[in-house]
Amino acid sequence: MNVAGVRHILDTIGNMFPDADCELVHSNAFELTIAVLLSAQCTDATVNKVTADLFQKYKTPADYVAVPLEELEQDIRRIGLYRNKAKHIQNLCRILMEQYGGEVPSEHDELVKLPGVGRKTANVVVSNAFGVPAIAVDTHVERVSKRLGLAAWKDSVLEVEKKLMKQVPREEWMLTHHRLIFFGRYHCKAQNPKCQVCPLLDVCREGKKRMKTAKVRNDKENNSK
């Protein structure tokens, strides 16, 4: 896609969601890391409900390590894959205490070494907690990028990230990440996207196909009356 086309998409989504920001409630880099780890295959809304109590009980890595694994599991049992995530959290906290003085590292390469922290989580942490430009590709960002032609249908998550980094000005990476999430979460949904009122229908491959299918269906229904 050419520069003008990308700019059109970024500006349109920016006008729709000018205040898009991280919806995971946190007060520091450590809480954000735990919240993002918990958010895998789980909604931010559910994570926020769980962490409202969790972050009152556990303030430091030492707090998470001090309790039996079963107790931590019960504290996060409303979260999907809670048993694995509880293990990851305790192992992560041990490493933070042993290797990083109890602090979350600000370097991407160090973050991805931590249990339960993949590339997406590391990108969210470095950008939101440390102000390092990054684009984290979650399911919303991947879906929207492919529908709007910013990435190819067959692209892997890493390929989507690389293409977005090439097309989006570096100083807009974090903002674009949040806005693409909001656009995918509240407008261009997986099952029921708002194609009929979408200001980007002209460039959306998925939207054009859906609208064409809807028109054919309506025409058939009208002709059968």
TrEMBL record:
The EC number(s) this enzyme carries: 4.2.99.18
BP GO annotations: base-excision repair, AP site formation
Enzyme class, UniProt record, top EC level: lyase
SUPFAM superfamilies xref list: DNA-glycosylase
Pfam families: EndIII_4Fe-2S, HHH, HhH-GPD
Catalytic reaction list: 2'-deoxyribonucleotide-(2'-deoxyribose 5'-phosphate)-2'-deoxyribonucleotide-DNA = a 3'-end 2'-deoxyribonucleotide-(2,3-dehydro-2,3-deoxyribose 5'-phosphate)-DNA + a 5'-end 5'-phospho-2'-deoxyribonucleoside-DNA + H(+)
Binding annotation for [4Fe-4S] cluster: 188, 195, 198, 204
GO MF annotations in UniProt: 4 iron, 4 sulfur cluster binding; class I DNA-(apurinic or apyrimidinic site) endonuclease activity; DNA binding; DNA N-glycosylase activity; metal ion binding
Segments forming domain HhH-GPD: 38-186
Record key words, sorted: 4Fe-4S, DNA damage, DNA repair, DNA-binding, Endonuclease, Glycosidase, Hydrolase, Iron, Iron-sulfur, Lyase, Metal-binding, Nuclease
Gene3D superfamilies in alphabetical order: Helix-hairpin-Helix base-excision DNA repair enzymes (C-terminal) (1.10.1670.10), Hypothetical protein, domain 2 (1.10.340.30)
Coiled coil: none
Cofactors required: [4Fe-4S] cluster
Stated name of the protein: Endonuclease III
Cofactor note: Binds 1 [4Fe-4S] cluster.
Annotated function: DNA repair enzyme that has both DNA N-glycosylase activity and AP-lyase activity. The DNA N-glycosylase activity releases various damaged pyrimidines from DNA by cleaving the N-glycosidic bond, leaving an AP (apurinic/apyrimidinic) site. The AP-lyase activity cleaves the phosphodiester bond 3' to the AP site by a beta-elimination, leaving a 3'-terminal unsaturated sugar and a product with a terminal 5'-phosphate.
Record keyword GTP-binding present: no
Protein family (similarity comment): Belongs to the Nth/MutY family.
The keyword GTP-binding appears for this protein: no
